[in-house]
Amino acid sequence: MKKVLWMALVIGMALSVGATDRYVSLSGTHQPPFTNWFGAATNIQKAVNLALSNETVWVTNGTYTLTSTILISNSITLKSVNGPYLTTIEGNYPQSTNTCIYLTNCNATIIGFRIIHGHSNSGVGGIQLLNGGSVDRCIITDNWGQYGGGVSISGAGVVRNSLILRNYTAHNGGGVDTVYCGLATVENCTIISNTAAYYGGGICEAFSDNREIFRNNIVYWNNASTYGPNTSLIGTNQNTCTLPMSSLGTGNITNNPIFLNPSIDDYHLTTNSPCINTGTNQTWMTNAFDLDGSNRIIDGIGDMGAYEADPNHDADSDGLPDWWELQYFGNITNANQNADPNYDGRSLLQDYQSGSNPTNLVALGDRYVSLIGHNKPPFTNWWQAATTIQAAVDSAVAGENVWVTNGVFILTNQISITKGISVVGINGPANTFVNGNFPARTNRCFYMTDPSATIDGFSITNGFLSSGDGAGVWNSNGTIKNCNICGNVSSGWGGAVRMDIGGLLDNCKVVNNNGYHGGGVQCQYSAIMRNCLVANNGASYGGGVETFQGGTIINCTIANNTSGIQVRYSATIVNSIVWQNGGNEIANSSSAAITNSCISIAVGGTGNITNNPQFVNSASNNFHLLPNSSCLDKGVNQSWMPSGTDLDGKQRIQNGVVDMGAYEYGFTIGMRFSAVDIYWDSSSGTTYQVQSSTDLVDSSWTNIGTSVTATGTSSYVVDWIRDYSKKYYRVVQQ
After folding, report:
1. Residue 700 φ then ψ, to 5°
2. What is the mean predicted confidence (pLDDT) over 140-147?
3. Is a pLDDT exceeding 70 seen at residue 7?
4. Cis peptide before 341, with omega less than 30 degrees from 0?
5. CA angle centred on 414, ends 408 and 417, rounded to 5°
């Protein structure tokens, strides 16, 4: 059986294409006429402009960010070298507002791109086929258009073997809009989760003459406000999976297509999908390929949708079928048939042959991570410690801890935590850094989805997402605590943190991040922010925080952001300080329940004040409270507070009633893995001595280090401990 994947590009080697083809690479030297890889254009439009009829413009891996629409008016092929998973055309909304690709030549072809974030107020968001032309093996996702979300066809255009996902239009055709067409063809496409404000969430056929061809598609889970959530057609559907059943055409089904894992946008067919072998074969399918680059017909009859299913297909020839590798490992190349990732004594090939689940890990105890570890699975002691956090996370079993010691852990991909484990920087964020590695990489730092999972004690920095939310951490229901989350950038929701669905962000500093909605944090539904400092962040909406249909903010200080809090639909804000945020402290405050908080504008509610909170020095990012602050003892006590701490680790309630904001005014101690932190509020210029005792007898008090002369209103000393016997501490003013 023939197995073809996207060809791999090796720079410096010849590629079997026409001598006058054009080349595009982000690392090219941009020397016209762009006829080799060394002189490759760095801009797709420049290469398209110089290409002659019947030439191919080859585009290698990368994200090509647009400042204007790519216009193709000549009969050329625009083709990626390694396919849509590695080659993205980024529409760059909101920085740019334009259609991604505008194609006007009936003989032009686009093959193998991911088309994302196009935004047009006058046309389609993704691709416009004006007079014909074709689109093949593309992923067209998250585009917005006034008329057509993903693709608009005006003429005899063809769209094949493509995934059209999550696009939106303000009019008709969220996924595909065909208008004033003659022989438009949409076939073997998977069209999912698109939205139209009026007709045809998936496909809309309007002002046409009933000659369009719609066949072998899966059009499911789309939405339209007026009519036709999936399809609004004049003509016929043929061999298509959609709801409701089409009254015109043959071979249509309404069954759930049963995708492999739609929660992570994996729309391959499972082996029991009703869409397998239920398409109708066409002459073009001979020697043609699906979206993965696999044969378009495998078992004699083509499947519906963009992906062909083959229960025995093994693209990398490792003895493990693709469906099995996709189900357990997310792609077809990550698994080694001789590996034993769950330490059950069986190789992956033996797991497959015996029908065993290779992800059922064997509990062996906590896991360890160190940059100087020997990287010996299963990483159950410091000598064997993993050198990457993800390796230890993958080997851990629910209920275990992953202990990470000092260092800067530079990422090549996000750290994904999908089970109930705790990942802990043992010496805290001052010593343990997770670096997203921008600009060398563009990915978030952590992705956490299990409600029992915890991230504790890290500095999380340098995550960057040109497309996506939460460049520092995406958190669904888990807990993030004792972290500094700084210097992350996202084009979407939550520059630093997206609290999706629920979860807890506790005792964290979220500083100097940027996003589109919620520069620091986007806090949704039942998610809670507690004891957090959110400062110096920026966004178009909610420079500090954006809430969405809920979200609770407790004892947080939100200050010095481009704007404070954007409330979308609802929020709860308690014991918090929202101050000096670009003149817009809380947008839509009337939709929020706000109590016992300090805000520069009057918001109603109980216990709220507008007094200056009297920060120690907000210009230098010291948001501790001065002794004369109106925020002292003005909060409302909550059940978690008797054993809770503030952002410094001090006891949360110092004087009977909790203070507003992230910092409590007073004295307390905080425990770490190998140290005790002693904090106290001090007077600048005054000298103090911290002492410890084992029995509270005056003669037994011993000094911890030398005396400290305070330089501000908060001081601390660290007592590095060698045993865990009981100790008392006191601070003596000298």
Report:
1. -95, 0
2. 96
3. no
4. no
5. 100
- Report the pLDDT value the prediction gives residue 4, as an integer from 0 to 100: 33
Give the neighbor-by-neighbor strand order of the sheet with 109-111: 22-24, 56-59, 77-80, 109-111, 134-136, 158-160, 185-187, 213-215, 237-238
> For residue 326, what pLDDT is reported?
72
Task: Say if residues 460 and 483 touch (Cβ distance below 8 Å).
Answer: yes
Q: Where does residue 307 rank: exposed (0-12), middle (13-18), buried (19+ CB within 10 A)?
A: buried
Using CA atoms, how far apart are residues 427 and 666, in angstroms rounded to an integer?
24
Higher pLDDT, 703 or 66: 66
Q: Is 176 helix (H, G, I), strand (E, B) or coil?
A: strand
Q: Note the pLDDT of residue 322.
A: 73
Q: What is the pLDDT of residues 541-592, one digit of tens each?
A: 999 999 999 999 999 999 999 999 999 999 999 999 999 998 789 999 999 9
pLDDT tens, residue by residue, 358-397: 877 666 689 999 999 999 988 988 999 999 999 999 999 9
pLDDT band, residue 313 (cuts 50/70/90): low
Q: Assess whether pLDDT exceeds 60 at residue 181.
A: yes
Give the length of the chain. 734
Q: Where are the alpha helices (DSSP H) in 444-495?
A: none
Place of tokens 């044969």: 295
Instruction: Give the mean model confidence (pLDDT) for residues 452-477.
Output: 95
Per-residue pLDDT for 176 more than 90? Answer: yes
Peptide bond connecting 439 to the previous residue in cis, omega within 30 degrees of 0:
yes
Greatest CA span in the chain, whole angstroms?
A: 99
DSSP 342-409: T-SS--HHHHHHHT--TT-PPP---EEE-TTS---TT--SSTT-BSSHHHHHHH--TT-EEEE-SEEE
- Rounded CA gap, 189 and 159, in Å? 8
Indicate the average pLDDT of the chain: 88
Quick check: 671 pLDDT over 70?
no
Distance CA 244, CA 257 (A): 14
**C-beta separation of 658 from 652 below 8 A:** yes
The contacts of residue 95 (CB under 8 Å, 6+ apart) are: none
Asked if 708 contacts 686 with a C-beta cutoff of 8 angstroms, the reply is no
**Got the DSSP string for 189-251?**
-EEES-EESSB-SSEEEES--S--EEES-EEES-EESSB-SSEE-SS-EES-EESS--SSSSS
For domain 667-733, give the CATH number: 2.60.40
Q: CB–CB of 150/167 below 8 Å?
A: yes
- Tell how strand 675-681 and strand 714-720 pair up: antiparallel
Mean pLDDT for 215-221 is 96
Distances (CA, A) of 41 to 35, 54, 55, 385: 9, 19, 15, 45
Mean per-residue pLDDT, 627-635: 93
SS3 264: helix
What spatial distance separates the first Cα and last Cα of the chain, rounded to whole Å?
85
CA geometry: angle 267, 270, 273, nearest 5 deg: 100
Q: What is the rounded radius of gyration, in angstroms, for the C-alpha atoms of the chain?
A: 29
Beta-bridged to residue 70, according to DSSP, are 101
Task: Say yes or no: domain 406-609 is CATH 2.160.20.10.
Answer: yes
Two structure tokens written together for 655: 């004087």
The mean per-residue pLDDT over the stretch 304-318 comes to 80
Q: Cα–Cα distance between 553 and 528 in angstroms, integer?
A: 6
Q: What per-residue confidence (pLDDT) applies to 711?
A: 78
Residues 234/222, Cβ–Cβ less than 8 Å: no
